[in-house]
């Protein structure tokens, strides 16, 4: 996801402390996981509904 990469680059350029970067990366990872989960769930729903 280009958006996540861009956010990480911006955060890195701000020279944030390691702890802040750690939490930012964890938050981004959780967001990416949630988005992926929603997409997969929608695809599965479509598959079952079209049968």
UniProtKB/TrEMBL annotation:
The chain crosses the membrane at residues 27-44. The keyword Transmembrane applies. It comes from the Eukaryota. Keywords: Membrane, Transmembrane, Transmembrane helix. This is 88_t:CDS:1.
